[in-house]
Structure to design on (80 residues):
């Protein structure tokens, strides 16, 4: 069994109600629905695309040049 971490999150009420409804239809817990959504491949890919599209200074130009191949591979992986 996985180790779980307890955390609090803030959701818009509309999203919360949709998730609660989905949990009720599946006869499972809200936590299970959220874990399913967060752990899905699509969610991971969407998150990666969002991160890659951000205009940030998280890394310098020198770091980019050093890791250009890795960045290019990641962009190709996500059809970017």
């Amino acid at each position: 069994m996985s180790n779980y971490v307890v955390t609090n999150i803030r959701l818009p009420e509309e999203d919360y109600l949709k998730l609660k409804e989905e949990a009720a239809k599946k006869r499972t817990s809200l936590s299970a629905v959220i874990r399913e959504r967060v752990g899905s491949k699509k969610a991971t890919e969407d998150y990666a695309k969002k991160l890659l599209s951000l205009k940030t200074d998280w890394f310098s130009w020198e770091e980019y040049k050093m890791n250009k191949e890795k960045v290019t591979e990641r962009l190709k992986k996500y059809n970017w």
Q: What stands out?
A: The mean pLDDT is 79. Residues 20 and 30 are 6 Å apart (CA to CA). The helical segments are 13-26, 30-39, 41-53, 61-66, 68-77.
